[in-house]
Fold this sequence. Notes:
The protein is mainly α. It has a domain at 44-121. It is 71% helix and 0% strand. It has helices spanning 45-69, 74-166. The protein starts with 44 loop residues before the first helix and ends with a helix.
Amino acid sequence: MERGPYDNPPPGQPGQPGQPGYPPQEPAYSTPPGYEPVPDRRIGVAEVTAVLALIAAAVAIFLAIDARDQGSSDAEVSQQVRQETQRQVDEIRSSVNQQAGSVDQTAKQAKNEAARSQESTSELSSQVSTLQGEVNSLRSQQSQMRDSIAKQSEAIADIRRTLREQG
């Protein structure tokens, strides 16, 4: 019995890509060398401003058509469109300026925080240096005490020896 191209492979025979007996993939379907997927992007202020300007233009055109339908003269229509467009442009500028002010404020706060962190780091570094000096001093004292104890231990052993020899 002849099998069609969409039939499942018989049991025991390979049927997955990359296995022996499976037709190789055509080069046209493979990923080209050096291809890397496009990384995720964030939308910036310029893109938002451009979108808002596009929306403003669309609204201005809509208003122009609406005004023309009402029977106004071309001069009145163009005046209304200019006024509405200017109003929307002013709103967009105001919004962008507010965002820029917010970004400036955030940058100033970050700069102040960095300065405080630097001061804290300097203070901690100074404290660490002081503590290292104290540790070295204590180690020196500990070494002197060990030497003193060793000498006293030897002296006590000598005294015991002499007492045994006399007694």
